[in-house]
Amino acid sequence: MTTSSPARSSGPRPSADRLARLLNLVPYLLARPGIEVAEAAADLGVTERQLREDLELLWVCGLPGYGPGDLIDMAFDGDRVTITYDAGIDRPLRLTPDEALALVVALRMLAETPGMANRDAIERALAKIENAAGDLGGAPVAVRMPGDGDRADTLRGAVERGRALRITYYTATRDETSERVVDPMRMLMVGGRAYLEAWCRRAEAVRLFRADRIDALTELDEPAVAPPQAQPHDLSAGVFQPTPELPLVTVRVGRAGRWITEYYPCEQVRPGDGDEWLVSLRVSDLGWARRFVLGLGPEATVVSPPELVEQVRDVAQSALDAYSVPDTAAGFASDGAPRVVPRPATAAATH
């Protein structure tokens, strides 16, 4: 079952729970035409409001094409609802060879993902689909996830054994490598990457360490003992969660630089002159912001803060100076030294 538009929701709910409820809702209503919404909500263990939101979502679910005769349809008579077209959901599912292979590949990828919980359930589902797919299930398809799976397994073992770790870690925001002792708390998977959440004795705070940025680690004999104030992060909104105390950076970007508004959490996006946008976002470190803006090249102009404007200007000028070379065709200065002529170079513009 596919959807052609997002559902409206009154609040956050686990998507997996809602999907299971939607899949059960159609056969439930098919077996009970004309049932009252209140009765159906009580049977399904949801509020009437949640059920009505689910019915609204069902209205845009169905088969590819999303035209008349493709989407699930229903009729309301006061507070009673009847499914008038089920888009074939009542028929047994029969996968095409391509669909079966896609499921096998997806489940194998999940099974290979470092830190994935409920791996036994994934392997059981994979075995059932491979058995149903017959010869296709044994197709020579190898799936390997990017990243350091062995490192994630080692970290997971340290968490399970409750041991402190000495790690060498690369911090991308500051472009530096440091050594620190941490007390592991748990392993996480966020955005397809494995993270170690631990109490960092150097920072005296809970920190997240990306597994693929841990260059070296040693499991210590001492136990991992996080202090009482060490609380797990709420990562429901992602790893990076902007807060008001972080520096606010504003850049002017052209059409080719608009992609940053989709990739990074932005506080404000305003139209500028012509095709330009003024984009404001929080950053954890101005050093990272400097490298980020310079990487955008001529597509970005720093507007604020002033210290970032100065840093980008200095680095850009240094890059231009590095392109200055002796040009014998330009002749010589009065002291006999060859004239130095700067070659044109591309650098991030600043105010």
TrEMBL record:
Domain PafC HTH: 17-130
Top-level taxon of the source organism: Bacteria
Pfam families linked: HTH_PafC, WCX, WYL
Domain WYL: 153-218
Domain WCX, first and last residues per copy: 248-320
PANTHER family cross-referenced by the UniProt entry: PROTEIN PAFC, PTHR34580
Protein's UniProt name: Protein pafC
